[in-house]
Structure formats: C-alpha cells, structure tokens
Amino acid sequence: MVCGIDELFSFCGVQFAVVRVSDAEADDILRDGLFEVVRDEVRLVSPVQRWLLLDRVEQVPLQRVHPSRRTAASRKLRTDVYLVPLSEAPGHTAPDLRGSWQASVSRGDQNLARTTLSFTAFNAERLATTPIGKLMAGVFQNAERPDIAMVLKATTRIEHAEGLGPSHVDRVIAGGSALLVDGWIANLPGRQMHLVTSDFGSWVPQSAWALRARQDVHDHLASIQALTTRSNEHGFVAIVPNADEAVDKSYYLVALEPDAQTAAWFGPIHATTTKDDAEAILLVRSAFGDIQSLPRHLASQIYHPLLAKPENEAIARPFRFGPSLPSGVPLVSIIVPFYGDGFFINCIHHLQRVLGEGFELVLVVDDARIFSEIYNNLNNRSTAITVPTVLLQNAENYGYGRANNLGFLAASGDVVLLMNSDIMVLDAAPLRGAAEAIRGRKAQRLPELVVGFSLLYEDNTIQHIGMEFPRSSQVGNMRLADHPMKGLPYALYSGGPVIKVRAVTAALMCLSADLYRDLGGFDSVYVRGDFEDADLCLRAEQLGADMEVHVSEGLYHLERQSIPSMGDHDLRGMVTYLNCVTFNRRWEDHLSEPAPMATGKRVHQIVSRKRA
Fold first, then answer.
1. Residues 557/420, Cβ–Cβ less than 8 Å
2. What is the rounded CA–CA span in Å between residue 469 and residue 477?
3. Euclidean distance between CA atoms 136 and 149, whole angstroms
4. What is the phi/psi pair of residue 241, to 5°?
5. Quick one: angle between helices 368-380 and 345-355, nearest 10?
6. In angstroms, rounded to a whole number, what is the distance separating the alpha carbons of residues 29 and 35?
7. Taking Cα atoms as reference points, which of 76, 82, 75 lies closest to residue 30?
8. 148/96: higher pLDDT
9. What is the mean pLDDT of residues 308-323?
10. Is 567 left (phi over 0), alpha (psi -120 to 50) or beta?
C-alpha cells in the first residue's frame, strides 16, 4: 500500500486534511486507521470512519512482456483520495494553526505515513471545480452550521464583484478582534447573502447582519428602475469575528439563488481597514443596539468580538534582575501584571523589603507604553533588588487573564501567588502562611486549597473578604461576583482568621502550581479583566479544591487605580456586562444547586502553550 498526506487546510474554523491511499487492499488495511496532526501539546485526530471519499482513480499498470510469452491480465491499481475532517482532542481550546505540524496515518502500532506540513490557504475556485464543497457541507451540517452547509451544497459560480449589481462598501473598521463592514446592496431584504473572508477564517450569514434603512439608496434605485422590493433596508453592517489586524482585507459576498441550487461568489473584494475601537463601538451600538438591550446570546455574539483582543500566540521577552534562583528550596512565584500605570512598581520595591527568602517575582508588562518606565526603574535599582525577579515584555497587550497565564510559564515555584500591581503588602506573614497551608495539604494528600486574603482600602474599610454570587436587577437578574462587607470598616468584622468561601479575588490569590496547571489558568473567553477569578475558583471547586480567605491586617488594595486608561465608564460597563453574560451562561445551573461535592472531573480546561 502507498499512503500519502497531501495537504492540511482550515475552512471556517474546521481543520481538514487530504490523504491519498493506493492499494487494492486499502479497505482492509485502513479499517481501523487513524489520522492525526500534532504540535507541542495540541493533537487533532480523525478515525478512518470519519474520512470522506473525495476521488477514486483506477488504472492498469504498464508491463513489459516478451512477445512469445503469455501473461495473465494485470490487476488494476486504485488510488483513493479522502477528505479528512479533524477534531481536536478533549480539553483543548481552538489551536493556533501557524507553523509546522507532524501529520501521520497509523493503524495500531503500524505507521503508514508520516510527514511535516503547514496549514495552507483554501481558495474559492476549488468549490467550483471539485466536489470538496459538497463533502464539507455534511461536516458543517453536523456542526450545526446549516447556513454554511446550504451554500456548500449548491453549485458554485465565481464572478467579479461588479456582477453583484448596485452596491457599495462605505467603510471597513477594525475594532477589538473584529472587522465591521458598513455598506449597502440593492434589494437586500429579498436576497440570501453571506460575507466570507477570502482566507475562509470567518463566515457571516445575512441573518447575523444588521439591516439599515437607506432612503437615499432606495430613491436612487427607483430612479434607475432597479427596485425589486418595497423595503428601503438596503444598508447593512456585518461583524466579522476573529479577524487579524491586517490593513488590507479581502472577502466575498455570496448570493444564494432562491432555489438554493446555485451560489454566486462575488469577489474577492478588497478593502482598506481603519483601526478605531471607539468608532467601531459607536457603529455597532447604532446598528444593533446597546449591549443590555439585546437578548443575552446576541449580546455575546455581537459585542464579544468587538471588545475582545485578537487571539494571537502570547509571546514575551524576559529580563532578569536580582540574585539567581536558589536550588533545592521551595519557592513561591508572585505573578504581577502591569497595565496603564507604571507608578505601581513602587509597590514592588516595598514588597521586596518585606518578603525575605523563598519568593521570586514575575512581573508581566502588558502595556508597551509603560515598559521603558518599569525597565529603567528596575535597572537603576538593580543592585538593591534582593528577590529573584523576572520582567516579561509582552509583544502586545494580551489582557489580564492571558498576561497571568504567560507569567505562569516563566514561574519556577511550586506555589503561585497572583497579585495585582496595586496591592500594597505591609506584612508578608499572610503570604507565607498561605503557602505553608497549601504545601501542608499536598503533603497530607488532602484536597487542593485556593487561598484569598482580606484586602483593605487606604481608609481601612473592607475591599475583599470573599466573593458571593447574588442575582442583581442591574444586569437582568443575572448573578454578579459580589464582595460582601465591601466598604464597611474592618473593625466591624467579628469572624475568625480563616473563612470558608465559594470564591476569592485574584487581586491576591494563592494556589499550587499543579492546580493552576491542571486548570489551564485563566480562561481568555473573559475580556479585559472581569469574572476570570470567579470562573477559576468554580473550576477549581469542581476539581475538588477548597476555597478559604485568610483574614489579617496589613494587605491593601488601591482598587482600579492601576488601570486609569482602560476607557470611559461606558466601555467599562459593557465589558462587565459581557463577561457577566459569559459567566452566567457557564455557571447559572451550577450556582443554582447546593455547593457540590468534589467530583475530580475537569471542566473548561484552558491550555497555555510556550512558544517554540
């Protein structure tokens, strides 16, 4: 048998391979076969039962035969070409497809083919000239994307953009991780349109567009006798998610004929984008409505791409200060993200004075505007730095959760302490006590422990002493991550030194490195820093961990003073509401039940991967 792997490609979020098998007994040999592509910790797999026959070629091999000899008829050789839809192994997030992958076909312990390939770009012409689209249609139908499946089932016709008829794209704006296409198409309400990026990374059906009244267009079409609808909603705004920040983008406008037998692909249409987050938000609000006016599923679908950061691979450049890491000594790694204000490096200088041995600092600068300030500050004080310190310069702004996850990859300790840059530690004894409690649990093989701390404002009122999840009419009766006793004088607290709670804030949170790794860190589905810590605690609870708040004086939180440039109050409110929707969609049923017993089952695992 001859087996070959011809190609890897991605189409609208689903990965595929093209595999070639040549052998008369291929059906028997590959009955239990498996295709897989692997890179680092990511594995995409497809058993042979899911393979789809794309092409079959039979041929009789040429033979040299002596004229005087009689030979038996030659058996035909058969080459089967399969389209292989790939599914990612459970417990992983969507993979970054850039770079090289190890692809292989195997049956049991027998390796039938192996090669190194990169994912290549798909092109629309293949839909018009091969049966590949009709095979992919079934995959997307099973994936509950009938809009894509319907177009792929139709006969494809590629046309120039002018063939679409009267239409115009007024502007293309990049905001967050999305592109917004604002324009008009004649008689839009009577058509079945789709917008598909030319790299086939995103597919946006007309049902997800906002149609807008354009009386000027309506009057123009009437004057040239081109109207076929009474509606004046010829205008549209389409949100293209998961878009990179390339200046020049191209896409197709796809029109499905009324009989659904033919799909005309107009394009590719090239557009120059303008990066403007504020303008993008204004356009979406005017076209789709305010975030809280929408049904929750639409609020997430529409606003999440607008407010989220592009999911690029997290990269950071490390710089080291202070003494080398001690060997053979248990270590607590304190991870501190910086964004918005480099002034809070002064909290770190004070922290160094009170920590003592057994700690390292991992400072993650997630804001290019303040990196020079922090680097120069550390460099000028380098001879006075007594705690091993790693400074990470992020390649771009990744957001709170991903910045912590990146810092964890650079950490060396068996215990991790997550700390906001605006935390002031006057006494490090609570930090040492938390680390000892976590290590003691592990030594006795008891359930893992997540420790939070009582945090005070500058006036000695309470900022945090645990979190609860009450419903609130301010967010449509969804559950909020609430801080009981917040704002009350610390002197009113009459409880003990340890409180059992459901969740704690990550402004100052301690847990074992093993638990953080098992959880995969913070889930980047939450944007810009809200609800990640509550989500992490509930996932830890499902792994069997306990949550405690250690109550003591000497720990202060200068809340939100470190992020003055996050944006105006309106943007902050949109971010909080969006994350609240995400959190409630995931945890509403769980929080409505009594606190569960430990199950030992992982949920919502998030994978952090180092850059090669």
1. yes
2. 11
3. 8
4. -80, 170
5. 40
6. 14
7. 82
8. 148
9. 87
10. left
- pTM above the 0.85 mark? no
If pLDDT is split at 50, 70 and 90, which confidence band does 245 have? low
Q: Give the model confidence (pLDDT) of 483-538 as tens digits.
A: 999 999 999 999 999 999 999 999 999 999 999 999 999 998 998 878 999 999 99
Distance of CA 503 to the CA centre of its chain: 23
**Among all chains, which residue has been given the structure tokens 């115009």?**
168
What is the C-alpha to C-alpha distance for residues 300 and 290, in angstroms, rounded to an integer?
12
Q: Which residue, 422, 429, 467, 10, is CA-closest to 201?
A: 10
**Mean pLDDT across 162-189:** 94
The token pair that represents 75 in the structure block: 């058996």
CATH 3.90.550.10: which residues of the chain? 316-591
Residue 568 confidence (pLDDT) above 60? no
Strand (E) positions, 166-234?
Answer: 167-175, 178-185, 193-197, 203-205, 210-212
Pick from 34, 38, 13: nearest CA to 101: 38
**Number of other residues whose CB lies within 10 A of the CB of residue 276:** 15
Instruction: Specify the 3-state DSSP secondary structure of 48.
Output: helix
Instruction: Locate CATH 2.60.40.10 in the chain.
Output: 131-307
Residue 411's pLDDT is 97
CATH class of the 316-591 domain in this structure: alpha beta
* Amino acid found at 436: E
Distances in Å between the alpha carbon of 464 and those of 172, 415, 516?
43, 22, 22
Instruction: Please give the C-alpha separations between residue 93 and each of 37, 50, 486, 607, 609, in angstroms, as whole numbers.
Output: 15, 21, 36, 7, 11
β-bridge mates for residue 546, sequence order: 449
What's residue 313's pLDDT? 73
What are the structure tokens assigned to 108, written together? 């049991």
State which amino acid sits at residue 455: L
Q: Give the residue-averaged pLDDT of 334-362.
A: 94
* Fold assignment, 131-307: Immunoglobulin-like (2.60.40)
The SS3 of residue 279 is helix
Give how far the C-alpha of residue 230 lies from the chain's centroid of Cα atoms, to the nearest Å: 42
Is residue 381 predicted with pLDDT exceeding 60? yes
With 70 as the cut, is the pLDDT of residue 609 above it? no
Judge whether 338 and 365 are in contact, CB under 8 Å. Answer: yes
Q: Give me 177's structure tokens.
A: 């991780």
CATH architecture of 2-62+75-120: Sandwich (2.60)
Of 143, 133, 298, 104, nearest to 207 by C-alpha is: 298
Calculate the average pLDDT of the chain. Answer: 88
Cα distances (angstroms) measured from residue 108 to each of 5, 31, 83, 354, 441: 18, 11, 21, 58, 42
List of residues 6+ apart from 208 with CB closer than 8 A = 238, 239, 301
Tell me which DSSP letter residue 489 carries: B
The percentage of residues in the chain with a pLDDT greater than 90, rounded to a whole number, is: 73
